[in-house]
Amino acid sequence: MAFFGFKDFDRLSEVDLNIYRFFTANVDKVPYLRVRDIAREAHVSNSSVMRFIHKLGYDSFPEFKVSFRAEQQQAHPTNHQINFVTDQNFPTDIYEKIELVADRMQQADQVIFCAMGSSGALAEYAARQAAAVGFNAICVKDPFYPLVNQLKNTSDNLLIALSVSGKTIELLELLNNFINNEDVTLVAITAEPSSQVALMSRYVLGYSVPQQRIAKYYDLTTQVPALYLTEQLISTARRLAVQAGDHLI
């Protein structure tokens, strides 16, 4: 019972052969069509399509579609890999940079993860993870959050900005308040190491990834490399803190 291996063409009528030719010409489309869609596009009746399916040895159309899709994948295997993060995503000195930022994080009185849009969800996760292991960490996703006032009488703050493009206007305006502030050290985690966010920062944890946007405003770029960097940063800072005798979790 197979479509691609079918050889008994003598059993097929001219109508059956038309349906067969339609299937072979639309291999990628067939698994997503209904019987009436196939009938309409192949210029045959619904019952003709079902008779053809039964001649192939299938009891139902759903059974045929599942088998067709499986055969298609075996005949044309894809080259998908589960390598979400590889060395190619990062500069060669990335771990040295992580150590530098982690050392600064271990010494900071407060760590602020700051981001807008889809990066904001990652900033929130990073702040939660950092707080979970004992760091005084918060997340700022609101461009109008009064961070300047909150940090006015504080010192030794580490502000980590996450931005794929490094061009988010609201984030740039927020960071601009701290460029010349000696009590705030700016760090950028970005896919654009030459972007304005990176240029404003003392340390840059850069990565490379194809950027994807739809309808101009919706960023579909993967956050996996940035997630990897934040987790490496937090785990490294925790290790340094433990080595220094700090009582973290």
Can you offer a commentary on this structure?
By secondary structure, this protein is α/β, with parallel strands linked by helices. The chain folds into 2 domains: about 10-75, Winged helix-like DNA-binding domain superfamily/Winged helix DNA-binding domain (Arc Repressor Mutant, subunit A), CATH 1.10.10.10; about 85-245, Glucose-6-phosphate isomerase like protein, domain 1 (Rossmann fold). Helices cover about 45% and strands about 15% of the residues. The chain is built from 10 helices and 7 strands. The strands form 2 sheets. Strands 2-1-3-4-5 form a 5-stranded parallel beta sheet. Strand 4 (about 185-190), helix 9 (about 195-200) and strand 5 form a beta-alpha-beta unit. The longest helix has 20 residues, at about 225-245. Keywords: DNA-binding, Transcription, Transcription regulation. Pfam families: HTH_6, SIS. It comes from Ligilactobacillus pabuli. This is RpiR family transcriptional regulator.
